[in-house]
Structure prediction request, 410 residues.
Amino acid sequence: MITFNTAESILKKYGQEHILAYYEELDDKEKVRLLSQIEMTDFSVLENLSEKNRHSSKRGRFEPLGAVTIEDIAENREKYYSAGAGAIRDGKVAAVLLAGGQGTRLGFDKPKGMFNIGVSRELYIFECLMNNLLKVVKATGAYVPLYIMTSEKNHHDTVTFFEEKNYFGYDKKYVKFFIQDMAPSVDFNGKIYMESKSDISISPNGNGGWFSSIVRAGLLNDIKKKGIDWINVFAVDNVLQQIADPCFIGAVINSGSESGSKVVSKVSPDERVGVLCLEDGRPSIVEYYEMTEEMRTLMTESGQLAYKYGVILNYLFRTDRLEEIISEKMPVHVVEKKIPYMDNNGSFVIPEKNNGYKFETLVLDMVHLQKSCLPYEVERSKEFAPVKNAEGVDSVESARELLRQNGVEL
Ligand code: UTP
Prediction:
């Protein structure tokens, strides 16, 4: 472990000496904890605070990108299904569940997947996802290896929950957990918050680090040993998420694309969703707030929105391509958040408004590192029921309604 002097010089370089302000008051154990946190923290993310380093100021030239539409898929269903189901049966496909987020908008203090979305019975978000995956297992007769990403903050609760619930009927031999990395949180002046005199304020570093965290956890060997060629990455909070969907996998394989993304048609030009398009000729996702009025409203000759296809955090990547891009730098997003902290009097404060920034890399930026990505259109009422907020848009209530519409008993 690093010495006090080394820690001090690292902090000086980044203008964060205040982290050691209480060092002399700490007992030996606390001193060790603080020094090891300083050693493990990636302070270079702070460089992203400067305007010139902000990801948003470095975007290229956008162009619209069409999709394999719902109609195309209906026409080719059998062909796609048999290619995808074949790949699953051959053990070529794995799934990665991104469940390391903190779900602050939902305001639930446990991992989001532990939220009970049932009304007259228990039905947990994790359970919805496992049920959806089990449908594929039943249809193809093969288990899909599942890797679940957690964070330091929710790992224990998540693993204990899966054990308690007997993996919701999934064969636990096919499930493995790994923990994502953390990043420091800062105030609006770029000073790292403290949670206590011996603890830096850190939080999960976004969902973009999932593959490097898999590698660090030693699971890439497992993936390669199993001969897995395709990895389907998906978010915890869409209870209608179709995981390892054979048709999607088959369509991507048949298209010769390096990757694929499930997309839904935007309901209106102003819908707040990232759109899959081309940026400097490569696939890319443009966030709703990055789109100009002209891009938002641009129409094709057939009278459709040109930037039409929104992403729903369900991607298919090739393992060999992920290995190739692992050393490429992902953009770091600076996101305003509410960050609990210790104030100057040593009291712990939970703020009501955003009070600083967190640093996140995002899985959607991996799409831009691919040479090609197949946008695959799905019906939103069948596959997209996000649980982001406690009330209103993308809430528990709207997701319940969509589950009911799809015949799920609540
Ligand atoms: P969100 O972007 O909705 O973030 O995550 P969140 O942390 O869950 O929720 P808020 O913003 O605090 O309300 C999209 C997906 O990415 C995962 C989440 O678990 C979810 O499946 N995620 C997010 C991670 O795995 N790690 C992260 O650091 C962030």
Remarks:
- The longest strand covers residues 309-318.
